């Protein structure tokens, strides 16, 4: 099969890698100068939902695939990207601590709820992936293999045929769009209920070495070495742009001050949009009208955990007709598609 992928963020690079693993022909189009969520992602994978002290959705299935996928990429690209971390949750009160103890004793949860030290519980099976480094290394690999076109994708050049799609005179069996937050502005997909969310983090240089493990308290405090710490991250919905803000800088600085006495200065700040969606489940599947055109999106704030597993899931659906999980299939929003007010010119099927 010959497949075209758009995007080289976590979604695009993972489906591209699955396509190559399965021995299909691949072309990737991505604008390498476009801001991306993956370039700014902190890259944590955390198996616990702190608010309910539950396991994260499908974590038992996702965890082994995360390690397998990223370790193979480390070997292939010759880069170190996946770091297991010492990660602790600070208990806000005694009830929370007792709840944690119950989870430790429970067979369903014990793989993720680790030992308690002072007023902190250790989170097991957590880690950090250097997403920016991975994206750059994967793009370099694709360029070297002449599989990547660094360009804006031009929707008006898509021509639908019964058995596939032409893009600029080249025929593909399937096209998979992995445009991250930009998909919310694309008429092909804007009927899907995206809930794009802006995120910012800062890096500070502290006068003292405040902790040598990743700490989740009011925010995540992530040691970077030499008394530097990343404070990650904010969640905001207005304005939805890629610019850093004074308010995020102040809020994250105040979080640090509420935890530690050490004086510090801010040395870096970054912002990006997350491809978050209303029901917090990824978007996978074929466009309801434009046959052979697929989406892989909606990774939200969990791209590192979701992309390795669901890239395989989607490719097996596309190439082997395996069914998609109902929870991730975009068909769940078909009613919205039928009720949309769509400009048909974006779906020009008459060329
Ligand atoms: C501050 C912050 C912290 C985060 N921390 C974490 C974390 O700790 N753990 C975690 O798992 N996730 C985290 N995330 C979320 C994570 O970044 C996303 O889940 C993930 O990166 C989404 O990947 P994506 O490929 O869907 O989108 P993107 O990374 O945005 O990629 C989109 C790609 O599509 C390309 N593109 C789009 N439109 C076009 C077009 N028309 N033509 C050509 N190319 C196009 C872009 O160039 C880009 O390559 C964080 C996000 C933010 C903002």
Description:
28% of the residues lie in helices and 28% in strands. With 351 residues, it is α+β, with helices and mostly antiparallel strands. The chain has three domains: 2-38 and 132-193 and 278-347, FAD/NAD(P)-binding domain (3-Layer(bba) Sandwich), CATH 3.50.50; 44-129, no CATH class; 197-274, D-Amino Acid Oxidase, Chain A, domain 2. The strands form five sheets. Strands 8-9-7-17-18-19-16-20 form an eight-stranded mixed sheet, sandwiched between helices. Strands 11-2-1-15-22-21 form a six-stranded mixed sheet. Strands 3-10-6 form a three-stranded antiparallel sheet, covered by helices on one side. Helix 1 (10-21) crosses helix 7 and helix 3 packs across helix 7 (303-320). It is globular and about 65 Å long. The two termini are 23 Å apart. 39% of the residues are buried. Residues 343-351 have low confidence and may be disordered. The protein binds flavin-adenine dinucleotide (FAD). Flavin-adenine dinucleotide (FAD) is lined by residues 6-12, 29-31, 34, 36-38, 40-44, 152-153, 178-182, 199-201, 232-233, 272, 274-275, 297, 299-305.
Indicate the percent of residues in helices: 25-40%
Residue-averaged pLDDT? 95
Oligomer status: single chain
User: What's the number of helices?
Assistant: 8
Strand content: 25-35%
For the largest sheet, list the strands in their spatial order.
8-9-7-17-18-19-16-20
Mind telling me the C-alpha Rg? 21 Å
Give unreliable regions as ranges: 343-351
Number of DSSP-assigned strands: 22
Total separate domains = 3
């Amino acid at each position: 099969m010959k497949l075209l992928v758009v995007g080289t963020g976590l979604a695009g690079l993972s489906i591209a890698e699955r396509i190559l693993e399965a021995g299909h022909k691949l072309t990737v189009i991505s604008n390498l100068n476009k801001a991306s969520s993956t370039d700014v992602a902190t890259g944590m994978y955390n198996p616990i939902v702190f608010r309910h002290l539950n396991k994260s959705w499908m974590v038992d299935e996702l965890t082994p695939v995360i390690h397998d996928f990223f370790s193979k990429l480390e070997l292939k690209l010759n880069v170190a990207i996946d770091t297991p971390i010492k990660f602790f949750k600070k208990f806000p009160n005694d009830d929370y601590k007792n709840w944690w103890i119950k989870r430790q004793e429970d067979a369903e949860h014990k793989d993720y709820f680790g030992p308690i030290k002072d007023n902190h519980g250790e989170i097991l099976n957590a880690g950090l992936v250097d997403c920016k480094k991975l994206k750059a290394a994967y793009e370099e690999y694709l360029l070297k293999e002449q599989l990547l076109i660094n360009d804006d994708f031009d929707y008006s050049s898509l021509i639908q045929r019964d058995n596939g799609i032409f893009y600029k005179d080249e025929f593909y069996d399937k096209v998979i769009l992995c445009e991250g937050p930009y998909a919310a502005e694309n008429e092909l997909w804007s009927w899907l209920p995206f809930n794009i969310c802006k995120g910012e983090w800062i890096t500070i240089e502290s006068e003292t070495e405040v902790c040598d493990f990743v700490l989740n308290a009011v925010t995540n405090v992530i040691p970077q070495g030499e008394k530097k710490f990343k404070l990650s991250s904010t969640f905001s919905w207005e304005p939805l742009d890629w610019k850093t803000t004074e308010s995020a800088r102040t809020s994250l600085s105040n979080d640090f001050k509420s935890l530690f006495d050490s004086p510090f200065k801010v040395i870096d700040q970054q912002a990006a949009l997350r491809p978050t969606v209303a029901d917090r489940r990824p978007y996978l599947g074929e466009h309801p009208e434009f046959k052979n055109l697929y989406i892989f999106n909606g990774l939200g704030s969990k791209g590192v955990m979701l992309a390795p597993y669901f890239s395989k899931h989607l490719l097996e659906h596309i190439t082997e007709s395996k069914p998609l999980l109902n929870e991730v299939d975009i068909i769940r929003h078909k009613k919205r598609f039928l009720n949309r007010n769509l400009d048909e010119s974006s779906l020009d099927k008459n060329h």
